[in-house]
């Protein structure tokens, strides 16, 4: 029951974010749209940003269900493609989060998704080269920050362009770099 209520509140917030930025939406509007009272909202969430964080966590779980095994054996292009497509599918919501006080939370959400997928990939590949766990995490952080920065720049530009074209631009930069970095790090040990 609690999960259904949270989903209803999140859906209400999503609908409102189709129309305007997060900082212009009130708890009253969210609860009225989904047919519950303010007390119910505050039973589940501290404020709108707590609801947004819950939404991101839920969306992250759904993303993983939609793209199982996406992190396997590539240099991050599939991860970038899937996350960019996901953001583009909800472009109005993404932009309204970005252009409000939810900007930081969007960045944290992307960081969490990219890091999880890249670190799984690097750990798997790192075993092949004998790269330490710590070095795999270091590389995952490095690439995660690069991917989040690129993605946030793309969001700032309005999510314009074809996702395939965007990913293709980074193919020459990314192609083989994870394996090469893992090999070099393994030799340094």
Fold and architecture overview:
Helices cover 77% and strands 0% of the residues. It is mainly alpha-helical. Helix 5 packs antiparallel against helix 9.
Put simply, the count of helices is: 10
Low-confidence stretches: none
Portion in helices: over 70%
Largest sheet: none
Q: What is the β-strand count?
A: 0
Portion of residues in beta strands equals under 5%
Element-by-element helix/strand order: HHHHHHHHHH
Mean pLDDT: 92
Question: What is the radius of gyration computed over CA atoms, rounded to a whole number of angstroms?
Answer: 19 Å
Sequence-ordered SSE layout with sheet pairings:
Layout lengths: L1 H16 L9 H8 L3 H7 L3 H19 L10 H13 L1 H8 L4 H27 L3 H24 L6 H12 L2 H12 L1
Helix pairs in contact: 1-2, 1-4, 4-7, 5-9, 7-8, 7-10
Can you tag this structure with a few keywords?
single chain; about 190 residues; about 75% helix; about 0% strand
Q: What is the structure about, briefly put?
A:
This protein has 189 residues and is mostly helical.
């Amino acid at each position: 029951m609690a999960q259904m209520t949270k989903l209803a509140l999140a859906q209400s917030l999503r609908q409102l974010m189709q129309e305007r930025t997060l900082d212009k939406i009130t708890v009253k509007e969210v609860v009225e749209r989904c047919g519950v009272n303010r007390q119910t909202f505050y039973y589940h969430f501290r404020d709108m940003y707590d609801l947004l964080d819950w939404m991101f966590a839920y969306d992250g779980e759904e993303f993983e269900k939609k793209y199982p095994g996406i992190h396997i054996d590539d240099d991050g292009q599939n991860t970038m493609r899937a996350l960019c497509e996901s953001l583009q599918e909800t472009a109005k919501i993404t932009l309204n989060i970005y252009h409000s006080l939810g900007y930081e939370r969007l960045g944290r959400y992307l960081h969490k998704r990219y890091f999880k997928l890249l670190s799984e990939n690097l750990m798997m590949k790192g075993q092949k080269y004998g790269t330490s766990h710590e070095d795999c995490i270091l590389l995952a952080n490095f690439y995660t920050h690069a991917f989040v920065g690129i993605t946030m720049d793309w969001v700032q530009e309005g999510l314009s362009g074809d996702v395939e074209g965007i990913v293709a631009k980074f193919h020459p930069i990314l192609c083989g770099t994870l394996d090469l970095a893992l090999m070099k790090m393994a030799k340094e040990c």
